[in-house]
Amino acid sequence: MSNYCIGIDIGGTTVKCGIFKVSGELIDKWEVPTRKENAGKNILPDVAEVLKKKIVSHGLTNNDIRGIGLGVPGPVEPNGYVSVCVNLGWHKIYPAREMSALMGGTIPCKVGNDANVAALGEMWMGGGKGRNSIIAITLGTGVGGGIIIDGKIVAGAHGLGGEIGHMHMREEEKEFCNCGGRGCLEQVASATGIAREAKRNLAKSDLPSKMREFGDAITAKDVCDCAKAGDKLAIDTMETCCRYLGWNLALLAYVVDPEAFVIGGGVSKAGAYLINLIQLYFNEFTQLSANKPEIVLATLGNDAGIYGCARMVLD
Amino acid sequence: MSNYCIGIDIGGTTVKCGIFKVSGELIDKWEVPTRKENAGKNILPDVAEVLKKKIVSHGLTNNDIRGIGLGVPGPVEPNGYVSVCVNLGWHKIYPAREMSALMGGTIPCKVGNDANVAALGEMWMGGGKGRNSIIAITLGTGVGGGIIIDGKIVAGAHGLGGEIGHMHMREEEKEFCNCGGRGCLEQVASATGIAREAKRNLAKSDLPSKMREFGDAITAKDVCDCAKAGDKLAIDTMETCCRYLGWNLALLAYVVDPEAFVIGGGVSKAGAYLINLIQLYFNEFTQLSANKPEIVLATLGNDAGIYGCARMVLD
Fold first, then answer.
1. Which residues in chain A are closer than 8 Å to B162, comparing Cβ atoms?
2. What distance in Å separates the CA atoms of residue B258 and residue B262, rounded to the nearest whole number?
3. What secondary structure letter does DSSP report for B280?
4. Which of B84, B257, B259 to mutate to test the interface with A (most CBs of A within 10 A)?
5. Size of interface A-B (CB pairs under 8 A)
6. How far apart are CA B231 and CA A89, in angstroms?
7. Distance separating alpha carbons of residues B147 and B137, to the nearest angstrom
8. Rounded to whole angstroms, how far apart are CA atoms A303 and A117?
9. HEC profile of chain A
10. What is the domain partition of chain B in residue ranges?
11. Sheet of A134-139, strand order
C-alpha cells in the first residue's frame, strides 16, 4: 500500500516541499531555492535530488508514494501543460511529466495552479476541513482565489477560474490595475490596496490619525491595528475595504454558493475583527436567503500549498 | 436497452412534457395544465396519467425508459427534497420519489431546479451544444441563471448557485428588489428592468423619442426595436442595461470561467444586436486574458426545460 503523498509548491524564490501521510499528517517539510536562471531548467532536478534523499531518510521507497503534486505560480492547462510561467522562467513545459521522469517514472505526478491547490489544502486540513466545496481567498500583495466544488478544483475553461482579484467592483476608481482594468477587487482589498486606501483617506482629511505616524510606508497591518485601537480614519478605511470584500463574497455566493469562504493571506492576521466586518456587509448583500455560506479564517498559512499539492494526487 | 428518456418541466400554469431518444432527439411533446389547488397534490398524478398513455402510443414500455427528469420552479435540496414550492403549492415533498411510484416504481426519477435544468438542456442540444461547461442566463421577467461545470449542475450548498439575478451591481439604485436587496442585476437587465430603465430615461430627458408613443406600457421589446431603429434614448437605455450584463458576465468569467455563456429568455430575441452590445462591455471588463468564454444565443426557447430534465437522467 502506498500510504504517503508529496506536495511541491514552487514559488519564485523557494520551492516548499512536504511529505504527508495520506491521512493528511505532515511528517516532514523543507525548502529548496528556486534557480530561475537557464529558463528554470534546474528547478525540478534540484527538487528531485533532495526529495530522493528525503524518501530514503524516512525509511520509504518509491512504492510507498501514492503520488507527487506540483503547484506552479501561473496558469496550467487541463492537460498539465504550462505555456509560460513568468515567475519561474518556464516556457512550454509539462512539469508533472518531467517530475515523474526525474523520480524514475513510477510515481504518478499532477500539476495545478498554486492558488487553486492552496484552496484544496485549506479544504483538506485547514479552515475548510470537513467541507466539500469552498472558496479560498488570499488577501496578500494581490487578491487570489481558489474554487473547490465537490472536492474538485474549478480551474475554468481558459484558466480564469478563481481570478477573483480582477473582478470589477469599484466604478469610481481612476487608477489602472496591473491587468489593464480599473476598479478591480485587489485594488481596494489586497494588503497593497488597503494601504493605498488609507493614504488616500489621510490625504483628503484633516482629522488627526495615528496612521499619519507611518507616513508613506504604512502597511495594511498598521491600518488594521489603528482601526482596532479605535482610530476613526483607520476604521473608515477598513469599512470601505471590507464592504467591497463582503459584497464580493455575496457575488460569489450567488454564483457557486460554496459551503464556506476561507480567508487567508497576510491581511487575514487581523482575525475576528476582519471576519466580522466582512460578515456584516456580506449579510447586507445576500438578503435572498438566511441559509448561506460561512466565512472562516484559513489556518495553514504558507503551508496551504504543500497540503493542497499532496491532496491533489489522492483522487 | 432503455433508449428513451423523459423530461417533465413543471411550471405554475402548465407542465411541459417530452419524450426523447437518449441521442437527444425529441420524439413527442405535450402540455398538461398545472392544478395547483389542494396543495398541488394532483400535479404529478395528472402528469403520470397522460405519460402512461403516451408511452403506450409510441409502442414503448417502461423498460424502454431510462429515466424521468423533473424540473420544479423553486429550490431543490441535493437529496431531492422540496421544502416549499410557492408556485405549485407544494410543501415538504420528494417529487422524484412520488413520480417514480406513480409510474410503477421501476423507472428512475430525478428532480432539479427549473433554471438549472434549462441550462443543462441548452448544453445538451441548444446554444451550448458540444460544450461541457456553460452558464445559461435567462433574461425574462427576472434574470435567471444555471451553471454547468464538467457536465454537472452547480446547485450550491444552500440552493443559491446560479442566482445571478440577485447579484448586487448598481450602487446608486434606490428602489428595492423583491429579494430585499437594492441594485440587483435583474432590476436593470431583466425585461422588466429594461422597460423601467427606459421610463426613467424618458422622464428625465426632453429629447424626442419614439419610445414615448408606448407610454407606460412600454416593453423591453419596444426599447430594443427603437434602439435598432436608431432612437437615441433607446440606444442609451440598451447601452446602460447591456453594460451591466457585460460586467456581470465578466464577473462570472473570473469565478467559474465557462466555455460559453448562453443567453436566452424573451429579451434575447433582440439577437445579434443584444449579443454584440453585451460583448463590447464584457471585453472591457475582462482585460486579463484574450482567451475568454464565448457569448452565444440560446436556441431551445421554452423547450430548454424538457431537454434538460431528460438529459439529467442520463448520468
1. 254-255
2. 10
3. H
4. B257
5. 133
6. 53
7. 9
8. 11
9. CCCEEEEEEECCCEEEEEEEECCCCEEEEEEEECCCCHHHCCHHHHHHHHHHHHHHHCCCCHHHEEEEEEEECCCCCCCCCEEEECCCCEEEECHHHHHHHHCCCCCCEEEEEHHHHHHHHHHHHCCCCCCCCEEEEEECCCEEEEEEECCEECCCCCCCCCCHHHCECCCCCCCECCCCCECEHHHHHCHHHHHHHHHHHHHCCCCCCHHHHHHHHCCHHHHHHHHHCCCHHHHHHHHHHHHHHHHHHHHHHCCCCCCEEEEECHHHHHCHHHHHHHHHHHHHCCCCCCCCCEEEECCCHHHHHHHHHHHHCCC
10. 4-113, 127-299
11. A152-153, A143-149, A134-139, A260-264, A294-297
Q: What is the CATH number of domain A130-299?
A: 3.30.420.40
The model carries a pTM of 0.93
- Overall average pLDDT of the B38-47 stretch: 97
**A171/B287 Cβ within 8 A:** no
Residue A9: pLDDT band with limits 50, 70, 90: very high
Options 3.30.390.50, 1.10.10.10, 3.30.420.40, 3.10.320.10; which CATH number does B127-299 get?
3.30.420.40
Looking up cell 423533473, which residue turns up? B70
Are the beta carbons of A246 and A281 closer than 8 angstroms?
yes
Which residues on chain A are in Cβ contact (under 8 Å) with B180? 287-288
**pLDDT single digits (tens) A84-127:** 888 899 999 999 999 999 999 999 999 999 999 999 999 999 99
In angstroms, what separates the C-alpha of A169 from chain B's closest C-alpha? 8
**Structural domain A4-121+303-312, CATH architecture:** 2-Layer Sandwich (3.30)
Pick the CATH number of B4-113 from 3.40.190.80, 3.30.379.10, 3.30.420.40, 3.50.50.60: 3.30.420.40
Whether B75 has a pLDDT exceeding 90, the answer reads no
